[in-house]
Amino acid sequence: LYKTSLVVIPEQNDPLRIPFSEIQEIIEGDYDLSVITEDGLRVIFSMMGFNLDPFKQSLREAMGELDQGTRALITGMLPAVSPQEISLVAHLFRDGQAASRSEIESVSPVFWNELERAISCSPIAEEYAYLKSLARQDKICIGVKKGLMGELTGRYIWCLFPMYSLDLTQPGNALAMESFSSTENGGGKATYFFRLVSRKDYPGSVDLDALHQEADIFIRQINRCLLAINFRREPIYLSEEKLAEPLYIKYRYALARLPSLRELRARFIGRVSHTTPEQWRRDVDNLLKFNVSSRSDLEQWSKGQ
After folding, report:
1. What one-character DSSP code corresponds to residue 229?
2. In this structure, are residues 208 and 305 in contact, taking their beta carbons and an 8 Å threshold?
3. pLDDT tens digits, residue range 116-144?
4. 256-286: buried (b, 16+ CB within 10 Å) or exposed (e) per residue?
């Protein structure tokens, strides 16, 4: 048991890491314990003898400590929100994962408004407002995490904006990611964009529910991947040539071990640097136009296209 995950180390196979944020249910039997993840993976711990009960207790304590830390983090960010409201939603943000507006409002109708109010006073207020205007409102996600270097970087807040519709004249088939740290004077250094479905398939989309489902699946993949790589951006956007350099050997190892990271790289469209607000918006518009006009999933956007 680690601070944020459960790791199973078989005698012959590769280690299996199960983040606490992905555990959906724990079922206690008389002589075993089943851990079920969001993706339906079921891991059964049995034949543990007298070690079973201490293991059960330690697992629940570790998950409880993580939830307690999440509640404290949210309280520091949103002091006006009542402890009761925070307790209702804290599990959605466990270990920094992002939760959608629809998920949050189904539990606490007031909490989403408080999150947006906090972001409206942040360095990414303008970027958030513009990306929100392009996105599916109920699918927008927000995550809150302790700074990537502990106390040195305060709170890290990140947002996901799924953009899609059946109207091909509108920007679509994309998911934007924006973030900032509470200790930074400005917002993040760039906004990252990913392709939702194949560019060959998107123009023929006639089923909005199918696109909703694709968005939900991809959001879970992004959550899983970013938590696994501790929200580092370089393994997502660095070229294959750069990744071949000795400096990035740890990222090559991560690519070999994480299918979700390989998928994220395959869907990466490009990133838009935060220069001036006007230039940022023009570049965002150009990237989204490029994305719906291209028919090759291998093409990435670069400034000037």
Report:
1. T
2. no
3. 999 998 889 999 999 999 999 999 999 99
4. eebebbebbbebbbbbbebeeeeebeebbeb
Contact 70, 94 (CB under 8 A): yes
Total residues belonging to the chain: 305
Using alpha carbons only, give the angle 76, 233, 202 rounded to the nearest 5 degrees. Answer: 105
Predicted confidence (pLDDT) per residue in 48-75, tens digit: 899 999 999 999 999 989 889 889 989 9
The pair of structure tokens assigned to 72 is 């404290």
Q: For residue range 179-230, what is the model confidence (pLDDT) as tens digits? A: 987 665 555 589 999 999 999 999 988 899 999 999 999 999 999 888 888 8
Nearest to 34 by CA among 59, 17, 68, 9: 59
| Token pair recorded at residue 278 | 């006007």
Q: In Å, how far from its chain's centre is CA 232?
A: 12
Residue spans per domain, the chain? 5-64, 95-293
Quote the tokens at residue 144: 């809150």
Over residues 75-118, the pLDDT tens digits come to 988 888 899 889 989 989 988 899 999 999 999 888 999 999 99
First to last CA, the chain: 49
**Burial annotation 57-71 (CB, 10 A radius, 16+ → b, else e):** eebeebbeebbebbb
- 144 in Cβ contact with 77 (< 8 Å): yes
